[in-house]
Amino acid sequence: MRRYLLPQSGNFYKANMHCHTTVSDGRMTPQEVKEHYMANGYSIVAFTDHHVLVPHPELKEETFLPLYGVELNVDEIEGPERANGKTCHFNLIALEEDNLIQPCYHRTKYMGGHAEEHRCEVRFDESLPDYERIYTCECLTEMMETARKQGFFVTYNHPTWSRERYPQYMNYHGMHALEIINYGCLVTGYEDYNPRVYDDLLSDGRRIYAVAGDDNHKLAHTCGGFTMIKADKLEYRAITSALEQGHFYASYGPLIHELWVEDGKIHITCSGAYQVSCHKQMPHRDKACRAEPGQQITEAEFDIAPGDGYVRLTVTDDRGRHAVTNAYFPDQLFD
Ligand SMILES: [Zn+2]
Ligand SMILES: [Zn+2]
User: Fold this and answer.
1) What is the reported pLDDT for 7?
2) Which of 125, 177, 294, 334 is deepest in the core (most CB within 10 A)?
3) pTM (2 decimals)?
4) Looking at residue 80, what is its pLDDT?
5) 113 C-alpha to center of ligand 2: Å?
6) Ligand nearest 50 Cα, by number?
7) Ranges of each domain in the chain
8) Nearest ligand (C-alpha, residue 73)
9) Edge-to-edge strand order for the sheet containing 256-262?
């Protein structure tokens, strides 16, 4: 019997999961972002301005859903030499639209861009002392786990741009997802397509998802990296529930239509592709289906077995752009 990994029912909603506006250091206003993305086929934008969680309920309409979030960062070096050090950035997206208490808040520090002007709009737990950020794995794990416990979807962002390596990211715990594709970084020359980071984390036993976003600060960064979320309706909790359940894939080009397992095989249908590859926890079991020269493929299937560990697929188009599925583990693939 077919077991659908992306739900068979519902609609795909195109989402940009990482966005900056004039609320922090972006050039476009929230309204301009909404209009631009709607005109390009998007239904969802997660507003993740730096430092301040400012919701945008005024942007909501039947065919557009703003998600409410914030991007937090902890820097190895503070002050003017900051760019010479490593940094860790992560996005928090509120799972409930009325649960907007910003975790790990400091009343006077950690602002930038226009965020200071919006400090008065931030809600935080006034009974808690100011939270001091330190660039250590312990502090970053504490921040991610605190945010997760307080009802946020936590995504670890652009490790390449941040200059973070295996010893850093392998010791961060609490994230729901890795930002496997950051389009704003890609178009400015950073290799922030990060499949290897995803495999490192998965191989350590983490059950995390892979998302894509634009991280747009200006027009040139827009409408490239997207997450296709499958849900029954375009309502806040329906969409965040689909995020929690992994009902989505990440891309900066190809589309994935269907994904299912049946009789020991994983099947995918997709937009015209140059190659579909299957990655498994046991690396010598990776396989690829490739189109003949001048042709494209729109489906592929691969043998899977419980001993493979996790399985995930990548679709590559003839411009070298990728769509990636989440990773699925044996208990999700087999009875
Ligand atoms: Zn960032
Ligand atoms: Zn960002």
Assistant:
1) 98
2) 177
3) 0.97
4) 87
5) 12
6) 2
7) 11-252, 254-335
8) 1
9) 3-4, 256-262, 265-273, 297-303
